[in-house]
Write a structure and sequence with these properties.
With 310 residues, the protein is mainly β. It has helices spanning 18-22, 40-45, and strands at residues 26-29, 47-51, 54-55, 80-83, 108-116, 119-131, 135-136, 139-140, 144-156, 159-167, 170-175, 189-192, 199-200, 204-210, 213-215, 222-225, 230-231, 237-243, 248-251. The longest helix is centred in the first third of the chain and has 6 residues, at 40-45. This is Vacuolar protein sorting-associated protein 62.
């Protein structure tokens, strides 16, 4: 299998539960997807904040991960981290990282949530600078700058029991045993679809025309997965504890930033107006060629997974 290049020095800090690392997913990236996991920090250097399509002043410039939450006071949920370049020209930074070598190359976030009574939910987040939505009935739909995807593994007394895979606005839950593992027999293999990066348990074609229901026969809205290069997110992620009672994130590595986890805005451009030339396909079935950027980690850590704490 082809290995997606990483740097071993970017290892998990002390204190992260061993089982969270031993059973962390490995992601197969689609062989034909030009968009790769992206530096979270680089998203800030290549964008600027806007509200209602107008740039806003940064209280304490430049934008950095350790003070991104300052934008909550100057626009909050209405802030969009907007590309400095026209995203439709496909600037090189949208294609993400090819290799890794320093602290600025972090492309993911791991969040450990101790829910008590032996139940621990570990969330593995992955970031892409761009989401390519795909072609439907000859129209390109669903593109947007910025793309956060994640999966969650529920551990009970240190044993992995269930796993959640995000897919567009929702996802799928499985028993941990149901997924194929790597050679160690411990790490589940997950497949990121080309362009949209929705996560699936098997390679192949996945139809999501009907929300929250995957059809066996391709119909209209389709994701494709295959065994392309293998991406190990552990070597390129930040690691945090999350306290549900106080709604706070604490880094396992004290020097890692936390402010970006509290940012309430969007990690990409706002959806372009219908009369914008970039929306040339004029949409289909309620979808536009370009949608708005996604919210971040702080908006996704609690998930409606349909299993009890037990």
């Amino acid at each position: 299998m082809a290995a997606y290049q990483t740097n071993a020095k970017n290892a998990a800090p002390n204190g992260v539960p061993t089982y969270v690392l031993e059973h962390a997913p490995l992601l197969y990236l689609h062989s034909k997807d030009p968009y790769r996991p992206s530096s979270i920090a680089a998203q800030l250097t290549n964008t600027h904040p806007e509200v209602n399509f107008k740039p806003i002043a940064v209280p304490n410039p430049p934008l950095r991960l350790d003070r991104l939450d300052q934008l909550n006071n100057v626009g909050g949920e209405n802030v969009y981290l907007t590309s400095n370049e026209d995203a439709t020209t496909n600037p090189a930074w949208l294609e993400g990282q090819k290799t890794y070598g320093n602290e600025d190359d972090k492309t993911g976030v791991v969040v450990v949530v101790d829910k008590g009574e032996g139940v621990v939910d570990a969330f593995y987040f992955y970031f892409w600078a761009f989401n390519w939505g795909g072609i439907v009935l000859g129209k390109q739909l669903g593109d947007h700058v910025g793309d956060w995807e994640h999966n969650m593994i529920r551990f009970i007394n240190g044993v992995p029991k269930y796993i959640w895979l995000s897919q567009h606005s929702n996802g799928e839950a499985f028993t941990f045993e149901a997924l194929t593992k790597d050679a160690s027999g411990k790490r589940p293999l997950i497949f990121a679809s080309t362009g949209s990066h929705a996560l699936y348990a098997i390679p192949g074609t996945h139809d999501h025309t009907i929300p929250n229901f995957n059809l066996d026969v391709p119909l209209l809205l389709i994701d494709e997965t295959d065994k392309g290069s293998l991406y190990d997110p552990l070597t390129t992620s930040y690691f945090y504890r999350y306290n549900p009672t106080t709604s706070t994130f604490t880094p396992y590595n004290a020097t890692d930033p936390t402010a970006f986890l509290y940012f309430k805005g969007r990690w990409g451009d706002a959806e372009y107006p219908a009369d914008d030339p970039r929306q040339k396909d004029k949409g289909l079935l309620g979808f536009k060629k370009y949608g708005g950027g996604p919210t971040g980690v702080g908006d996704k850590y609690v998930h409606p997974i349909s299993i009890s704490n037990k």
